[in-house]
Amino acid sequence: MVVDIKWALVLDGIGESCTNILNLLGIQTICRPNIIREYLLNDLYAYDAIVVRPDTLITKEILAAAFRLKIVALASPGCGQIDMEAASNRGISVINAPNSTVISACELICGLLLAVAKHMRPARTAFSKGLWSNGSFKGNELKDRTVAIIGCGRVGKGVASRMSGFGMKVVGFDPLLSVTHNNGSCTMIKDINEIWPIADYIVLLGDYVLYSMIGFDPFATQEQCEQYFISKMTPEEQPAFQQWLDINYNFFVDFINADVLGRCKTGVKIINVGRGGLINERDLLDALNSGQVGGAAIDVFEGCQKDPVTLSLIEHPSVIATPHIATSTTDVPVHAAKEISEQIVNLVKPGTYSTMLSELNKIYD
């Protein structure tokens, strides 16, 4: 697949790491960090590709004005605010940067797990009040303890490799991955119910609906599937897969609840950087107060800060709460700009970079 791209419009201050790579191949770039909608509509006719951030609204009207446009490049994971149907109807390919947030997310998860293991929250709180008794906060070593990773995609794979470096036993569960897949340092478990009694730490990385869409993308290449240890979906499997989604959708809500927590080890520790709705917050709060759960680190919440249950979790002495910062680093935009620009270059001159194409809609064969 070769795409003729001569001019690219780079919006939202995406930066030099993008334009430098494009210019190196001879793609002319125009940067408009603060362009207003009227000017965007007037200027789009001249460009073969546009590069945007996820909060940029790319509507049917905008796509209609861009009669030369071949590529909308999103410098972020996900789909952003792009009218995918309109892009597909116009024959415009939408690509994104799925790997740009992986390292930042992995590092936060590992940091939260360590902080919970060493009781850093209660120790810091007591220390700030003048209490110097280090004997009151005895944490645990991670070596030889078991961490269960629920959702074993890109981030899960990274967490597994990092925590195995601490000598942890790493097990994983993902309904879309076979237990025979070699997922790096992670031993895949077939039945989720086998995990609860053995896990000292449970890491939640996302609801299965999202993993399903990524893991079984029928447009993913075989190479992409093999890199992330994912089964390649055949056209014949799609109807059964959709039925599986329809049947199990409610399974993702309150996935961690009183029943599940009661089957876990006493003192189990929970780390949630996936979705707020995965955990029943009231059940988690009760389990923390009873001692069934020994600690938690939560980066995503179901309720808002004014919700009394959510607020109680945030203020709980055994909880480390963060305001959805898993991917909030200065490095993520740099990674995203680099990844997306290398994909554009590969569309013009295939094989220039090892970066794989991440199409969100199937346009080119």
Automatic annotation (TrEMBL):
Family annotation (Pfam families): 2-Hacid_dh (PF00389), 2-Hacid_dh_C (PF02826)
Presence of keyword NAD: yes
Entry annotated with the keyword NAD: yes
Positions of the D-isomer specific 2-hydroxyacid dehydrogenase NAD-binding domain: 111-204, 255-326
Keyword field: Acetylation, NAD, Oxidoreductase, Phosphoprotein
Residue stretches making up the D-isomer specific 2-hydroxyacid dehydrogenase catalytic domain: 9-228
Top-level taxon: Eukaryota
GO molecular function: NAD binding; phosphoglycerate dehydrogenase activity
Oligomeric form and interacting partners: Homotetramer.
Entry's family note: Belongs to the D-isomer specific 2-hydroxyacid dehydrogenase family.
Protein name from the UniProt record: D-3-phosphoglycerate dehydrogenase-like
Species in which this protein is naturally found: Papilio xuthus (Asian swallowtail butterfly)
